[in-house]
Amino acid sequence: MEYLKAIFTLNVAANDEQAAKDLLADLAAAAGFEAFEESEEGLTGYVQPHLLDKETLDEAIANFPIVSARIEYEMEEAENRNWNEEWEANGFEPICIENKCVIYDARHYSPEDLPANMSLQVAIEPRQAFGTGTHETTRMVVQQLLNLQLAGKHLLDCGCGTGILGIVAAKLGAESVLGYDIDEWSVDNSLHNATLNGVENMVVVKGDATALNAEKKYFDVVVANINRNILLADLPLWVEKTTPKGTIVLSGFYQTDTPILVEAAKTLGLALTSQKELDGWACLTFGKQ
Ligand SMILES: C[S@@+](CC[C@H](N)C(=O)[O-])C[C@H]1O[C@@H](n2cnc3c(N)ncnc32)[C@H](O)[C@@H]1O
């Protein structure tokens, strides 16, 4: 796989540098960047060409309050690498959500190591894919799923990453799950994690929202944790594929973008039913009329 490389330049006082780097890494993640490295050239970010959301990045940088940052868009190809390699080798700490659900790395923990009071255990082995619950956006969507009645429902998981959201839904009783992701590794990893959790009613396909044009089925619940511009572009199709009175949960964007998403949803006939924010990230739940 090929990566584009971008050099970021931060103009901040030395004692603000770490906070600025953390914030910039978050902003760039929202624009599709997978990894940051400190190199001799500076702070270097890598993104798969088709996942770069340049508009989100430009806008975030323009609104960056404490620092001016410059990105050189003369990007180079970078070698194929597994950015998560080191992190995957060490695993991630179990993550508890709402005292109900624990997400754990099955390569490093076994069910007996987990807190006893969690009614839902979800094993995830991330391989080159996003979605462990360590990120605020994933956690907020899982929280929403825990509060929905999913028994017997059909769920669509857009940009499924590790498959975590579909797997949680299936374990909460969803009758079927269709996941899709533009990234092949994510498709493979979702299928692997579904098997790991004994989930048999989850289908995962490679592609973007256009794959839904051929889909005959309608969904009671649609979840999408991607980024603002993809959410805005694909929302009309998701609404079309949602049953009347169905639910759409969106995350992957900053709370400052909430008004734009709420407005877009309203024009498509959706009503906002719940709103969450965590460390600057947002999650919105809508009901179809
Ligand atoms: C932020 S991750 C979310 C993963 C997981 N659903 C979660 O909530 O943790 C976004 C995922 O969307 C995928 N993606 C990005 N653009 C996409 C698009 N246009 N259509 C489908 N998937 C896309 C990425 O490959 C990535 O796996």
TrEMBL record:
Provide a Gene Ontology MF annotation, just one.
protein methyltransferase activity
Specify whether Ribosomal protein is a keyword of the entry: yes
SUPFAM superfamilies hit by this protein: S-adenosyl-L-methionine-dependent methyltransferases (SSF53335)
Q: Which Pfam families match?
A: PrmA
Keywords from the named record: Methyltransferase, Ribonucleoprotein, Ribosomal protein, Transferase
Query: What does the record list as GO biological process?
Result: methylation
- What is the recorded name of this protein? Ribosomal protein L11 methyltransferase
Report the source organism. Answer: Hoylesella shahii DSM 15611 = JCM 12083
